[in-house]
Amino acid sequence: MIGWGDVYKVVAATAPLYFALFLGYGSVRWWRIFTREQCDAVNRLVAFFALPFFTFEFTLHTDPFQVNYRAVAADVISKAVIVAVIAVWARLLGRNGGGKGAAGWSITGFSLSTLTNSLVVGVPMARAMYGEWAQQLVVQLSVFQAIVWLTFLLFVLEVRKAAIGMYVDVGRKNVVHDAAMPESPIKADVEAAAGGGAVAVLVVGGAEEVGGKPSVWRLVKTVAHKLARNPNTYASFVGITWACVANRLHMELPSVLENSVLIMSKSGTGMAMFSMGLFMAQQEKILACGPSYAALGLALKFGLGPVAMAIGSIAVGLRGDVLRVAIIQAALPQSITSFIFAKEYGLHADVLSTAVIFGMLVSLPLLIGLYIVLELIR
């Protein structure tokens, strides 16, 4: 049962995040320390250095041979349910003539519904509610999120960025038959991202393809090249590979390497919140995306996510306290990493920042309420 001491532990884990957020906000809004370009550089530092080391460090210490594979299967099914719901929504939106930007909002919707801040909020909450085994289950699902879902998010963001890059404006000197280009979710998203000024010209091997879709092979090569240069692609896979070897052969990482990784990983969460503060300070309002999008983000996070996880858990036969922990884990606040990626790739960073900041504020009473409800329906 949750006591006041357990509530204090959760608050103590989250309060430092808001301290870093406050420093970032004040650095731009009041003290004028950073320019816009420098703020972008800070976010890139977090995206390409701090977060990969953070991911690598916490995957190092997991035990892959003690994973609850049924809970992992439930997680996969829940994500499939969410993808199906988003796909139906995007299709209906396209039929009603509102498909512009559907691809981008589908990515953001997936991020809001699925990616959780498991380590900061989930671990102390799970331990307080159900004990050590629940904490380990949350950590296992967090590692799986880093390996699969964050990598998947990175992949679709790179695909979107590459597709937008292929629709380049080569100037009005070229004759372009844009009207002949068939409407598609990615084209609509490209037009929305370019402010409606994108021109459907694809340069392939020095030749211009007018009015056509991007070459799939060129798209694949571009995305593969970008992912190969991104350390986030390797961090979780290298970490889990070492964890498998270390647990099987009872090895430990040399202390010099452990400390080298640790000194960078410790900056991950704090610098991510600092970067979010920098971003907030550049917006006109604290609630950057407006109340309607903020409410949508909270509904997806605390509504669709847990419901989908309940469906997946029941489908694989999870029962009792394991089922309850799985549902509560899906209702944890928004992943900070999702904002860093959204800012880096220029996709609804205002919505993600609002989801992270206000999601953590409301998560404690919501999670306690959900815990009570799940206990009552035993």
TrEMBL record:
<dbReference type="GO" id="GO:0010329">
    <property type="term" value="F:auxin efflux transmembrane transporter activity"/>
</dbReference>
<dbReference type="GO" id="GO:0009734">
    <property type="term" value="P:auxin-activated signaling pathway"/>
</dbReference>
<dbReference type="InterPro" id="IPR014024">
    <property type="entry name" value="Auxin_eff_plant"/>
</dbReference>
<protein>
    <recommendedName>
        <fullName>Auxin efflux carrier component</fullName>
    </recommendedName>
</protein>
<dbReference type="InterPro" id="IPR051107">
    <property type="entry name" value="Auxin_Efflux_Carrier"/>
</dbReference>
<feature type="transmembrane region" description="Helical">
    <location>
        <begin position="322"/>
        <end position="342"/>
    </location>
</feature>
<feature type="transmembrane region" description="Helical">
    <location>
        <begin position="354"/>
        <end position="374"/>
    </location>
</feature>
<feature type="transmembrane region" description="Helical">
    <location>
        <begin position="261"/>
        <end position="281"/>
    </location>
</feature>
<keyword id="KW-0812">Transmembrane</keyword>
<keyword id="KW-0813">Transport</keyword>
<dbReference type="GO" id="GO:0010315">
    <property type="term" value="P:auxin export across the plasma membrane"/>
</dbReference>
<feature type="transmembrane region" description="Helical">
    <location>
        <begin position="137"/>
        <end position="157"/>
    </location>
</feature>
<feature type="transmembrane region" description="Helical">
    <location>
        <begin position="12"/>
        <end position="30"/>
    </location>
</feature>
<comment type="function">
    <text>May act as a component of the auxin efflux carrier.</text>
</comment>
<keyword id="KW-0472">Membrane</keyword>
<keyword id="KW-0927">Auxin signaling pathway</keyword>
<dbReference type="GO" id="GO:0005783">
    <property type="term" value="C:endoplasmic reticulum"/>
</dbReference>
<feature type="transmembrane region" description="Helical">
    <location>
        <begin position="72"/>
        <end position="90"/>
    </location>
</feature>
<dbReference type="InterPro" id="IPR004776">
    <property type="entry name" value="Mem_transp_PIN-like"/>
</dbReference>
<feature type="transmembrane region" description="Helical">
    <location>
        <begin position="102"/>
        <end position="125"/>
    </location>
</feature>
<dbReference type="GO" id="GO:0009926">
    <property type="term" value="P:auxin polar transport"/>
</dbReference>
<comment type="similarity">
    <text>Belongs to the auxin efflux carrier (TC 2.A.69.1) family.</text>
</comment>
<keyword id="KW-1133">Transmembrane helix</keyword>
<dbReference type="GO" id="GO:0005886">
    <property type="term" value="C:plasma membrane"/>
</dbReference>
<feature type="transmembrane region" description="Helical">
    <location>
        <begin position="293"/>
        <end position="316"/>
    </location>
</feature>
<feature type="transmembrane region" description="Helical">
    <location>
        <begin position="42"/>
        <end position="60"/>
    </location>
</feature>
<dbReference type="Pfam" id="PF03547">
    <property type="entry name" value="Mem_trans"/>
</dbReference>
